[in-house]
Amino acid sequence: MWRQSIIDLQPKSRGFHLITDEILRQLPELKEFKVGMMNVFIQHTSASLTINENADPSVRSDFESFFNQAVPENEPYFTHTDEGPDDMPAHLKGALLGFSLNIPITKGRLNLGIWQGIYLCEHRNYGGSRRLVITLQGE
User: In which family does this protein belong, per the annotation (predicted)?
Assistant: First the structure.
């Protein structure tokens, strides 16, 4: 069985945000799957997705600090600057983290580890709403 849904996320500030519950609230059909996979794809190039620590918020702020240092704004070699100093760094951060995730489904639930959650990684100062394509496949 295959199912596909589009989920629009509310705009979030720049940073790393847990969105697991926001996704699950919009996927009641997940309960129909005994075993399968869920693919989450973000339709943007200046935001990304990852899975990491879901309990301590300092992990999310440390992620933001690390990526801001690793890919700083206003580098003189950036030529893609028409949309502001955060635009090209946002594209690079997105490419490093990735735009899709695959998560196993077991007995109608995501089979994440106890301390794992899905992050929206918002790399723009004013990114706006973000759209996810969720594809469920299984039995």
Answer: Belongs to the UPF0047 family.
pLDDT tens-digit map of 38-79: 999 999 999 999 999 999 999 999 999 999 999 999 999 999
pTM, to two decimals:
0.95
Number of folded domains that form the chain: 1
Domain range enclosing 134: 2-138
75 with 3: CB under 8 angstroms? no
The enclosing domain of 9 has a CATH number of 2.60.120.460
